[in-house]
Automatic annotation (TrEMBL):
Source species taxonomy: Bacteria, Pseudomonadati, Pseudomonadota, Hydrogenophilia, Hydrogenophilales
Organism expressing this protein natively: Tepidiphilus baoligensis
Matching NCBIfam families: ccoG_rdxA_fixG
InterPro entries the UniProt entry points to: 4Fe4S_Fe-S-bd, 4Fe4S_Fe_S_CS, Cyt_c_oxidase_cbb3_FixG, Electron_Trans/Redox, FixG_C, Ig-like_fold
Name of the protein in question: Cytochrome c oxidase accessory protein CcoG
Record-annotated membrane-spanning stretches: 45-65, 92-113, 165-183, 203-220, 347-366
Gene (name only): ccoG
Length: 479
């Protein structure tokens, strides 16, 4: 645990005598944690999410879809491939909905169960857990690691420490490589790896992400959660007395103290807590949950699993440390009452907003058109008179084929009497591409009044008669 902040104080007499002020430390010196491993249902759940999140992260770049990478945010082509969907920069609306959905999901889960995101799926937690697993396999358990750090440098220590750092570096580089493969096709990256011919931006981001993975998960660890993560600071405004948090039952556990197994603690005037300190030893941020909820707690529930094992050995009921709420603890509610109270108005409002935003997002994606047209007027000449007494406006149409197969289109114009169009009326557009097309639209002079008039371009897919797209434009008739 961190040492308490050092403070200094001087008496009024010292101040009046002009004594020199003693500087105070604004940062508690870090004391390295040697986290003790534990087992139990919550730790199995944590490792399940470790495997799930990393299977998704490392596995998606290897999946193929329509002879391409299934998930690829191709920066060069400015296209985002997500299995059967292809998104363009114009689809920023969907990104906005995803960000809103993510924000309200954080609000919802934090209001219900506190920092479960931090304890189970946060990348900092996940990668720290992986790095600690490597460390334990190479250097031993928490006792052996402490002894190894305190021992002088020997051949064995050099070998163990070098092996650990080598594995951390290899894993970090592979993680950085995987991240970049979401933005540059993975096949191209592997070819570049074989010849060490990465481009400058790929090289930078692989080493940048690998370096920070090593630094944050291997070196800083709990310092990130305690001092760098903003969520730890504003979690208080997201909690209320009915939020499920990890809580020590002081009424049952105090006064704490050691005793022999099989002895009734009440006969000794003690509570159920034997003051073994295992709950502190297994905490990845080094706090003592018996001191109450602290902002450093990431809700990993390691202390629950550890304490339950101690209670089993002592023959006491489980749950001295458990998930519960402040109101449940104060009012001695059972589990059913606690969970019923969790469905309070605040949570229901978050839930409704989540459902609505998610429904809109999936509906918009499911019904998004597979043909788009952007009409751009020629600004060099808004309108001009051409031979035969016609008034001509020039337009550039960017026709976007959003499916992964080439298609043939027809183009026509309407909206004004005797309107005609000069330019290609039938053309092919390659798969997932934009086809620029310049056309001249003409209307007889005097056919309509001077001013602006609405017209429309109609684009049809030749082999899909029902697939018709209309895009409005403005025709200018000069005076």
């Amino acid at each position: 645990m961190n040492e308490p902040l050092k403070t200094s104080a001087m008496s009024a007499k010292e101040r009046s005598n002009g004594a020199d002020e003693v500087p105070s430390s604004l940062y508690a010196k870090r004391k390295k944690l040697y986290v003790r491993s534990t087992t139990g249902p919550f730790q199995r759940l944590r490792w399940f999410f470790v495997f799930l999140t990393q299977a998704i992260f490392y596995g998606f770049p290897w999946l193929t879809w329509n002879d391409r990478q299934a998930v690829l945010f191709h920066l060069v082509e400015r296209k985002f491939y997500l299995f059967g969907w292809v998104f363009w920069p114009q689809d920023v609306f969907y990104l906005s909905l995803i960000l809103i959905l993510s924000a309200y999901a954080l609000f919802f889960f934090s209001a219900v169960a506190g920092r479960v995101w931090c304890g189970y799926t946060c990348p900092q937690t996940v990668y720290t857990e992986i790095f600690m697993w490597f460390e334990e396999k190479i250097e031993g358990d928490h006792v052996k690691r402490r002894k190894l750090d305190a021992s002088p440098w020997t051949v064995e220590k050099i070998i163990r420490r070098s092996t650990k750092y080598a594995i951390w570096i290899i894993f970090s580089l592979f993680t950085g490589f995987t991240l970049v493969s979401y933005f540059t096709p993975q096949k191209e990256l592997w070819q570049s790896l074989q010849t060490f011919s990465f481009g400058p931006w790929e090289t930078f981001w692989i080493f940048f992400y690998a370096g920070f993975t090593f630094l944050l998960a291997g070196v800083l660890r709990e310092q990130v959660c305690k001092y760098m993560c903003p969520y730890a600071r504003f979690q208080g405004v997201m909690f209320d007395p009915d939020t499920l948090i990890i809580t020590y039952d002081a009424e049952r556990g105090e006064p704490r103290g050691p005793r022999k197994k099989g002895v009734d603690p009440r006969s000794l005037g003690l509570g159920d807590c034997i003051d073994c300190g295992i709950c502190v030893q297994v905490c990845p941020t080094g706090i003592d949950i018996r001191n109450g909820l602290q902002y450093e707690c990431i809700a990993c529930a390691a202390c629950i699993d550890a304490c339950n094992q101690v209670m089993d050995k002592m023959g006491y009921p489980r749950g001295l440390i458990r998930y519960t709420t402040e109101n449940a603890m104060k009012n001695h509610w059972d589990r059913a009452q606690t969970f019923r109270r969790a469905l309070r108005p605040r949570v229901l409002i978050y839930g409704v907003i989540l459902i609505v935003v998610a429904s809109v997002l999936f509906w918009k994606i499911a019904t998004r058109p597979d043909v788009r047209v952007d009409v751009i007027r020629d600004r060099a000449s808004l309108a001009r008179e051409v031979r035969g007494g016609w008034i001509e406006n020039v337009y550039t149409l960017n026709i976007m084929n959003m499916v992964e197969r080439p298609r043939r289109f027809t183009l026509s114009v309407g909206g004004l009497p005797n309107i005609v169009m000069e330019g290609p009326k039938e053309f092919d557009v390659p798969a997932v591409s934009i086809f620029p097309l310049t056309v001249q639209v003409r209307v007889p002079a005097g056919a309509v009044d001077a001013g602006t008039h609405k017209i429309y371009f109609e684009i049809k897919v030749v082999d899909e008669p029902e697939n018709v797209t209309r895009e409005l434009a403005t025709f200018i008739m000069p005076e």
